[in-house]
Amino acid sequence: MQSFSQDLTSRKVDAELSQLLQALAQISAQISHDVRRGALAGILGATESENVQGETQKKLDVIANDLIKDGLAKLDLVKGIASEEEDDVVALNPNGRFLVSFDPLDGSSNIDINSLVGTIFSILPAPEGELTQDSFLQPGRQQLAAGYVLYGPSSLMAISTGKGTQLYTLDPISGDFLLIDDAMQIPATTQEFAINMSNQRFWEPAMQNYIADLLKGDTGVRGKNFNMRWIAAMVGDVHRVLSRGGIFTYPTDTKNPAKPYKLRLMYEANPMALLVEQAGGLASTGYQDILDIQPEGIHQRVAVVLGSRDEVTECLKYHG
Ligand code: AFP
């Protein structure tokens, strides 16, 4: 089995981008180790602080955030970072070629119930000049690379540098990620959907009608039955979609008028959209491709509908 570094070389990935991706892989291997130690390391539970999203920070949120920030600061490749756990962008190396946006521990509300969590990252080119939030406000199609690491029974890493989507598994003994799929392909059709059904009464009619037709199964217009999954960690739900197909959606809802969307564009929707499109799927807000959005803020939230090409297309028909 090829190692991550051997695979990047064989794909002729830019040497400095390859160095950055390998650094992120090594940092994620450390996060994987810390997540597995959990209670033994006294790192479960919450801190006394909240992040810019107003969410209580779990101890592992902060540990993972600082591991990534400090690890990237040691390289001379990264001009700055944006993180779910950082209010503002953090300048690192003024001559760095890259910007990195990341969710250090996606699904962290799953930590205390020993369920799936992961790390999501997005790499953009660093523009000339002083680093500000505006430096990051580039559409997702500008991403040079994107990836996630899922801390599950195995720690798996999905990466795209624009040449398909590759999957690697962590060898916990060597600390290396080894290639297990050199071209992930999402099946075009599916009978599996992922949505938080408790928000049903708050969705737009378009999504209410689409989901209602899925639930009617073979008694309704879809003519086939559907199954449902919800991991409450995007990284787990998207990995399932990449692995066996499906449609994952966190649509807009009116539950909290101040927060019409849930998922963050820069470090959840954009990286996942690149991985999904590169594996033959679609990733939309319901009204436009996620990768075409012109970001307006580093913590901007968006609606997400992604997965099997034909099923996302069917869902978009309900959205006119
Ligand atoms: P946390 O990181 O706060 O657990 O949020 C995870 C997440 O942003 C995303 O990974 C999930 O798909 C989504 O929230 C789950 O939201 P619900 O808790 O409303 O189902």
TrEMBL record:
Record keywords: Carbohydrate metabolism, Cytoplasm, Hydrolase, Magnesium, Metal-binding
Gene Ontology, cellular component aspect: cytosol
Family matches, as InterPro entries: FBPase_C_dom (IPR044015), FBPase_class-1 (IPR000146), FBPase_N (IPR033391), FBPtase (IPR028343)
Top-level lineage group: Bacteria
Binding of Mg(2+) 1, residues: 84, 103, 105
Residue intervals of the Fructose-1-6-bisphosphatase class 1 C-terminal domain: 186-319
Binding site for Mg(2+) 2: 103, 106, 268
Cofactor binding annotation: Binds 2 magnesium ions per subunit.
Keyword Magnesium: yes
Reaction(s) the record says it catalyses: beta-D-fructose 1,6-bisphosphate + H2O = beta-D-fructose 6-phosphate + phosphate
GO biological process, alphabetically ordered: fructose 1,6-bisphosphate metabolic process; fructose 6-phosphate metabolic process; fructose metabolic process; gluconeogenesis; sucrose biosynthetic process
EC number(s) reported in the record: 3.1.3.11
Ranges where the Fructose-1-6-bisphosphatase class I N-terminal domain occurs: 8-181
GO MF terms, alphabetically ordered: fructose 1,6-bisphosphate 1-phosphatase activity; magnesium ion binding
Oligomeric and partner information: Homotetramer.
Annotated family: Belongs to the FBPase class 1 family.
Record-given protein name: Fructose-1,6-bisphosphatase class 1
Origin organism lineage: Bacteria, Pseudomonadati, Pseudomonadota, Gammaproteobacteria, Alteromonadales
